[in-house]
Amino acid sequence: MVVGPGDVALSDLKSHGISLQNQLIYDWSRAFSDSAPSSGFGRYSYDLYMPVDGEKLLGWKGSDGMVRLKHHMRHFGNDCVGESQLYSNIDANSRTTLYEAWVEQKILSDKLRFKAGKIDANTEFAVVQNAGDFLNSSMGFSPTIVAFPTYPEPKLGFNAFYRGKSAYTAGVGVFQTAGLGRLTVVEPGRNWNVESESLPGRVSVGYWRLDGGTIPQYDGKQTSGAQGFYSVVEQSLYRSKSSSRGVSGFLQLGTAEGRISPFTHHVGGGAILQNPCRKRAKDSLGIATTWIRFTSYPQAGFDFASETVVEGYYKATLTSHVSFVQDVQYFHHPGGLRANPDTPVITPRLVISF
Fold first, then answer.
1. What residues have CB less than 8 Å from 88, skipping those under 6 apart?
2. What gap in Å lies between CA 311 and CA 327, rounded to an integer?
3. What are the tens digits of pLDDT across the range 138-162?
4. What is d(CA 249, CA 201) in angstroms, rounded to the nearest whole number?
C-alpha cells in the first residue's frame, strides 16, 4: 500500500491528539399541496469537525476541545408549507460559519465536567438521544425553549456537569442569546436499567430562564425575564438476545409563557425499531408525533390553537460511511393559519460521514 503525504500528515495530527471528521447531509423535500411548487425544496449542510485531545496535545489530563466549521446552503426552492415545526432540521439561511469552538475539563475521576466557548446548547441540554434520525426540528428539542442557542446559531456559554457513581446527574448552562439577554438552563436527570432485561432508560427535567435583556411581549409591553420547563423521558422497551433488534421510545414535554413565546405547550413522542429486517442489522424504522399549542394572545395572529405533525422514517445504512433516510411527515394546521392547508411532506436524505 502506498502512503501519501496526506496520510502522513493526518497520522501526525492524530499522534498529537487532533483528528478530522467530516459529515455531509443533503436532503430534498416535496410538499403535496396546491400552495407548494412542484420542484420541491433542497438544502445541504457540510460539517468539518476537529476534536482535540488536550492530554496528547498539551499534557492536560482530562481536557478536550472541539472546533467545528459548518457550511450550509439552501440549494433551491422556497418553503411554502408555512409550518412552525420545521420538517427538515437542517433548514436555515445559507451561511458558512465557525459553528462551535469550545474546551472542556474533567476532574475528580470525571465526576465533574466544565465546558466553555461557543457551544451548541442542544448537544448538552434537552437532548433526545433516541430521536436522532427523525428530521422534524421538534424531535431534537422542545420548541418552547425561547432563544435556545442551537442550530443554526450557537452562542458563547459556560456549562458545568456532575455525574457520580449513582444514577443521578445534573447540568447547568449559561449562554448568550440572539439579542434577548442571558439564558440559564438547569437540568437534573436520572438513569436506570431494567436489569432482568438489560433495558436502559433515563429522565431529565429542565428549567430555563431568560434574564438581562429586553424581551418583547405580545401585548406590546416589554419584560426583562421569562421562564419555562421541559422534560425528556427515554426507555429501551425491547432487546433481542440473539440479534441487534430492539425497540426504544421517547416522550417530550415543554411549557413557556404565552406573553413572550408563540408556543405555550409541547408534547412529543415516538418509537424506534432497530434492525427491522434480518439482513439489515443497522437499519432503523421510526414513527413519532409532535404537537404544539400556540399562544392565545390575539396579537400573535394564529387562527388555530395548535399544530400537529406525524412523522415516519426508514433509515438504510448502506456502508459504514453512507446512509439514506426516507422521511414522510403530515402537517395538521401548519403554522396555525387558515391560509396553510394540511400538507404531507416527503424528504429523502443522504448522509455521508468520512
1. 27, 29, 41, 43, 135, 137, 347
2. 7
3. 999 999 999 999 999 999 999 999 9
4. 9
For residue 220, with 0-12 CB atoms within 10 Å meaning exposed, 13-18 middle and 19 or more buried, which class applies? exposed
CB atoms within 10 A of CB 126: 23
pTM (2 decimals)? 0.91
Indicate if the alpha-carbon torsion angle 132, 134, 138, 142 is positive or negative: negative
Under 8 Å between Cβ of 218 and 187? no
Closest to 48 measured CA to CA, from 100, 11, 120, 4: 100
CA distances from 193 to 51, 122, 237 (A): 31, 24, 11
Lowest-confidence segment of 94-103, 109-118, 161-170 by average pLDDT: 161-170
DSSP single-letter state for residue 138:
G
Q: Looking at domain 5-353, which CATH architecture does it have?
A: Beta Barrel (2.40)
Other CB atoms within 10 A of residue 241 CB: 7
Average pLDDT, the chain: 92
Q: Which three cell numbers stand for residue 211?
A: 434574564
